[in-house]
Structure formats: structure tokens, C-alpha cells
Design a protein that fits this description.
Protein name: DeoR-like protein helix-turn-helix protein
CATH topology: Arc Repressor Mutant, subunit A
GO molecular function: DNA binding; DNA-binding transcription factor activity
Strand order of the largest sheet: 1-3-2
Low-confidence stretches: none
Number of helices: 5
Keywords: DNA-binding, Transcription, Transcription regulation
Mean pLDDT: 88
Strand content: 5-15%
InterPro entries: Carb_Metab_HTH_regulators (IPR050313), DeoR_HTH (IPR001034), Tscrpt_reg_HTH_DeoR_CS (IPR018356), WH-like_DNA-bd_sf (IPR036388), WH_DNA-bd_sf (IPR036390)
CATH superfamily: Winged helix-like DNA-binding domain superfamily/Winged helix DNA-binding domain
CATH class: Mainly Alpha
Pfam families: HTH_DeoR
Structural class: alpha+beta
């Protein structure tokens, strides 16, 4: 999973539902690229796609919880390791 996909997933988890347009604006890429990323994330079972939106799975599985605040957790881990 690349950093853009991590950003997308974090936004969806935080907001519950995010439009393709909003995701494109937030990440600075085209809506086509966002749709490709959403397809990838849906295949990995991180989120669900709806017409024009990405929707959180509201899941308590370990992989979904790992992605909550992923950036912050990664920064903390890097700080702790330094």
C-alpha cells in the first residue's frame, strides 16, 4: 500500500464516507487515479465502494485497526527507534 492509499484509507476511516471528488482534491491526483486506488483498497478488504464514494467497513479486525492513525503510529515508531 502506498502513502496515497494510506491517506485515502485514513480519511475514509475518520469520516466514515468520503466522495471520490474530495479524495482527489485532498491527494492532488485525478478522480481516475482515486478510483483505481479505491478498487485496490476494496480488493484488500479495507473499505467498500459505493457510487461516487468510499465507505468505511466499520470493522474491528486487526488490519483495519492497524490503519487507524497509521501516519501517527509510524511517526511514533520512527521517533522511538531513533
Amino acid at each position: 500500500m502506498n502513502s496515497r492509499q494510506q491517506t485515502i484509507l485514513q480519511m475514509v476511516i475518520d469520516q466514515g464516507q468520503v466522495s471520490v471528488t474530495d479524495l482527489a482534491k485532498a491527494t492532488g491526483v485525478s478522480e481516475v487515479t482515486i478510483r483505481q486506488d479505491l478498487n485496490t483498497l476494496e480488493k484488500l478488504s479495507y473499505l467498500r465502494r459505493a457510487h461516487g464514494f468510499a465507505v468505511s467497513l466499520d470493522s474491528d479486525d486487526v488490519e483495519t485497526r492497524m490503519m487507524n492513525n497509521y501516519t501517527l503510529k509510524r511517526e511514533l515508531a520512527e521517533f522511538a527507534a531513533s
